[in-house]
Design brief:
The protein is α/β, with parallel strands linked by helices. 53% of the residues lie in helices and 9% in strands. The protein is built from 19 helices and 10 strands. The strands form 2 sheets. Strands 3-2-1-4-5-6-7-8 form an 8-stranded mixed beta sheet, sandwiched between helices. α11 packs across α12, α14 crosses α17 and α15 runs antiparallel to α16. The longest helix has 34 residues. The protein is globular. It starts with 5 loop residues before the first strand and ends with a strand.
Length: 481
């Protein structure tokens, strides 16, 4: 029997769909799952009659794949990945390639790359986005790790990946060691922000304007025809148009308002804190999910705490348009924060990230795919060293055009008692970034007052400390080179 082009471990839905995708693109695949019944079920079900070989041990899987062997792991992140790597290192030969296609934390990928390369093998940590449908029909694939492995996996990855309109595959080499998983992590962080912003737009229209779901279904469908065109806006329109067959009520209203999360948004916020990058909107989106999770406390608090609970009295159509503009401007800020985080990570970890290519990776196939990613690609192509998306002419003009409406929506939400943390934080990020002077001067003075933490002056170099309660001995300085 001819050996397979690639082996895959882990036959949950994502793994199965990737295998079917590969096979449909004329690649032969060997598969293995820790539970033998899963392998048999797949081979006798969706994989029946296809160029898919079943293996019932890791040794059998390895022997079924042509050299240099490419073994892709689609298993739960964490210890299961480490366990499989240990087992595979004893089965594989030098030059073979291990690919982790799960949502691994990037520091783990950095560590694993070093370990696998030290053993004479190659390692790829690749983000795969697009959900079950994307895995089957064409995901966004973000590989990083051992660059020598790229030429071996590129023909497979680029053929199974989603394509932008001109045919360019949404799979390009991202960078060394953990770069691929870092970029996927930031993708997910932006996804958190995007989803929360859309949810706040829905919430303001529902409670601030009293709109019915069918009206909002039409609004989101209309928005999806313009600059907000994106997968998340598209599915929001679909969701709002769905009726629960059992009750006859809108399906979304029958869903408990407690949001789950798998941790990648939190990782993004933690990385931002570690690197000192302000990701206000992404982090507020994580906290919004945390707040939603304390449902019982909120139900109890609703009976005790009071606040505004009115309806917007201005022009309804103008306010809906204001929400659209606020959503677009806030979305720009969320992406700006994500790209700023990647820029700082590139400096910290020595990654040569191409931000235009990364935008292109997200243009199709992934969850945050959106029309305006073309604009991001153009911005970084024109200015590779662009410090922040807000400084690119297109985005500068877009936010300027939205400013008045953006501020109206944030202030109206506050007056109506409607929580809009993502909208508010995005505006705060914009206002903070555009100010040449912030109140951190007072903050630094406070730090110096209670802890002698010192400060810098605006009129001369050096490090200074004031003895705030000692008249006549106000300032001491320790000039620095």
């Amino acid at each position: 029997m001819a050996q397979a082009d690639i082996g895959l471990i882990g036959l949950a839905v994502m793994g199965q769909n990737l295998v079917l995708n590969m096979e449909s693109k004329e690649f032969s695949v060997a598969v293995y799952n820790r539970t033998a019944e899963k392998t048999t079920g797949f081979l006798e079900g969706k994989g029946k009659g296809k160029k898919i070989t079943g293996a019932y041990s890791l040794e059998e899987l390895v022997n079924a794949v042509k050299k240099p062997r490419k073994i892709m792991l689609m298993v739960k992140a964490g210890k299961p990945v480490d366990n499989l790597i240990e087992q595979l290192l004893s089965c594989l030969d030098k030059g073979d390639i291990i690919i982790d296609g799960g949502n691994s934390h990037f520091p783990d990928t950095i560590r694993r790359t070093k370990k696998v390369e030290a053993a004479g093998l190659l390692y790829i940590g690749t983000g795969v986005s697009g959900g079950e449908e994307g895995a089957l029909k064409g995901p966004s694939i973000m590989p990083g790790g051992s660059f020598a492995a790229w030429s071996h996996v590129a023909p497979i990855f680029q053929k199974i990946a989603a394509k932008v309109p001109d045919g360019t595959p949404c799979s390009q080499w991202v960078g060394a060691d953990g770069a691929g998983h870092f970029v996927k992590m930031v993708h997910n962080g932006i996804e958190y922000g995007d989803m929360q912003l859309i949810c706040e737009a829905y919430y303001i229209m529902k409670h601030g304007l009293g709109l019915e779901n069918e009206e909002m279904h039409k609004i989101f469908s209309n928005w999806n025809q313009g600059e907000l065109n994106s997968y998340l806006v598209e599915i929001t329109a679909d969701i709002l148009g769905k009726t629960d067959k059992e009750t006859g009520k809108p399906m979304v209203e029958m869903i408990l308002d407690t949001a789950g999360q798998k941790g990648t948004g939190k990782w993004t916020s933690q990385a931002a804190l570690d690197l000192g990058v302000p990701t206000l909107t992404i982090t507020e989106a994580v906290f919004a999910r945390c707040l939603s999770a304390v449902k019982e406390e909120r139900v109890a608090a609703a009976k005790i705490l009071s606040g505004p609970d009115g309806v917007y009295r201005g022009d309804k159509e103008k306010f809906i348009e204001a929400i659209r503009k606020a959503l677009y401007a806030s979305k720009i800020c969320s992406y700006a924060q994500g790209f700023a985080l990647m820029r700082e990570a590139a400096k910290e970890y020595g990654w040569e990230l191409n931000f235009g290519d990364i935008a292109l990776l997200w243009r199709s196939g992934c969850i945050i795919r959106a029309q305006f990613l073309e604009r991001i690609k153009e911005a970084f192509t024109g200015q590779p060293e662009l410090a922040n998306l807000l400084l690119a002419p297109y985005f500068q003009e877009a936010v300027e055009d939205a400013q008045e409406d953006w501020r109206l929506v944030v202030s109206a939400a506050a007056k109506l008692g409607l929580p809009a943390p993502a909208f508010s934080s995005a505006l705060a990020y914009f206002d903070g970034y555009r100010r040449s002077r912030l109140p951190a001067n007072l903050l630094q003075a406070q730090r110096d007052y209670f802890g002698a933490h010192t400060y810098k002056r605006i009129d001369r170099p050096g490090t200074f400390h004031t003895e705030w309660l000692a008249p006549g001995k106000e300032v001491t300085s320790d000039p620095v080179d």
